[in-house]
Amino acid sequence: MKTIRFKTLFFLIVACFLAIIVRAFSIEILNSHYKHIYANQVKPTAVIKGQRGLIFDSKGKILAENSFAYDIYVDPKFYLLYNNNNKNRKFLDFIDHIFKIRIRKLIQKNPEKQYINIGILPIKYFSFVKKSIPIGFGLHKKIIRYYPYSNIVSHIIGFVNENYNGVVGVEKQYNMYLAPQNTFEKIYLTSYGGIKYSKPPKNGDNVHLTVNERVQSYLHFLLKDTLKKHKAKMAMGIVMKPNGSIVAMDDVPGYNDNKYYEYSNYSRIKEMPINFLFEPGSVFKIVTMSSALNSSVFNGKEVLWCDNGYWPVFGHVIEDVEDNKHLRFDQVFAYSSNVCSAKIALKEKKKVFYQYLWRFGFGKKTGIDLPGEEKGIVKDYIHLRPFDLATMAFGQGISVTDIQIARAYCAIANGGYLVTPHVLNYISKDHKIIYKYKEHPIRILKPKTVKKVRHILYDVVKYGTGIYAQLKNYSIGGKTGTAQVANNHGGYSKNKYIGSFVAIFPLNNPKFVILITVVEPKGVNYGGVIAAPYVAKMASFLAAYYKIPGNNLLKTLYWRK
């Protein structure tokens, strides 16, 4: 009886087991209906993040891209358990040399720690490390932002922080376009255990700039050269088209945006041409000559008495470098007479002078599409004293930025229109343009005024203070500037100067405005000596690079008989 009961129970268990196997086979192989139901019901979500957009120059060269790097780390506890220092001497010496640390002491002082990040491994050492890395050390792959031209374009491009968000420069200005979208997407499980996303990751948009890497690199070279030659504190430069587009802009000494974290002095990272304030000196006389002519207070044929370059006025003295006597209106600016410039502004009166000062955009931001711009400092119109007006006529008692000066000369180069400086050309997504920069120029000068001012700038280079900017077979016009640096006591330093030269090239068919400013040079400090020759070199480079035909005829510029 017991045997029959046991056999019956055994066959029942086997039968149930076989039934389960048959049913499982039916569900898994013959009919995946239940699998699909389960897969469709279980739809977890995940954060999907694409790649940050790229930044290109005007010729399509990549200025900012996404790359990968390896963090090298050590687990001291694990390392000490399985290694000894003598065995890995070569590798440990390598770590000491590359990262400037004493890795053996670091490990010995932290025997219980399980993770210490040493730093980012230079990619050229990856093969060596991979072959010789001992137990206890490891590599962690991560995505990083890489700037191929490092400190050459760093002031324009900027950099991103650890969260991959722009901090300065273009990276910050256009972060909303460059940053990839973080999206919550559903994850689908396939019938055979695979995973698929409802939508692919969304990458950031690509930003295309007006900046030309070749021109930028040459400007960087020139600024480094003048900084070294004149032992200056800083040198700045801008190459700009008359329509406001920035072709190149830089200052030295700069910084390497691939290693921004190494600079404790934030002033090295700031974009100086848009936020370094200084009293411009005679380059500001563009306002004085333009306002006098455009308002018809002067017609350009007057002869002025320059008091032998020494004019006591309002309890102060205004001086010229030369003992100028009688000068024609154009000669006043060609020889850069402060005395006669002051007399011109005083005859205009502050209402006319300030009207054109504001027309040129001084005292407010230019609107350039880079963060951190300063608006400059202009004295209060209501309480302005006559002596203040006199000194402003030659660029003293007013603070400006390089970008404001370059913008003012663009108005002469483009026929009398105030434009907005910009580095953006267009933004693209999936090889399609989704936004293109549009300029909205505003006329501020009459065409006949522009014609007269251009010829004055030509005279500056032909026989005036800008003779070192002359170019064979090319017409070039510009203005020199030499200004004392204001001190903290309400006066001016006796041995600190800022020298500048700004030019329109070529003058008979303007294509570029070039500005170079040298801050606190040692020895010679005149803008016509320390900056003008470098402007000429840049103009020569631009002529060759853009294949600008030589033509020194200025028939279209002559206005006086």
Quick recap:
With about 550 residues, this protein is α+β, with helices and mostly antiparallel strands.
Main β-sheet, in a few words?
Answer: 7 strands, mixed
Taken as a percent bin, the fraction of beta residues is: 15-25%
State the CATH topology of the largest domain. Beta-lactamase
CATH homologous superfamily of the largest domain, by name? DD-peptidase/beta-lactamase superfamily
For the record, what CATH class of the largest domain applies?
Answer: Alpha Beta
Mean pLDDT: 88
Helical amount among residues, as a percent range?
Answer: 25-40%
**Outline:** elongated
The CATH architecture of the largest domain comes to 3-Layer(aba) Sandwich
Distance between the termini: 140 Å
Determine the structural class based on helices, strands and strand pairing. Answer: alpha+beta
Number of domains: 2
**What are the low-pLDDT stretches, counting only 5+ consecutive residues below 50?**
555-561
In total, how many beta strands?
A: 23
Defining key terms:
2 domains; single chain; Penicillin-binding protein 2a (Domain 2); Beta-lactamase; disordered C terminus; alpha+beta; 7-stranded mixed sheet; 561 residues; 23% strand; 19 helices
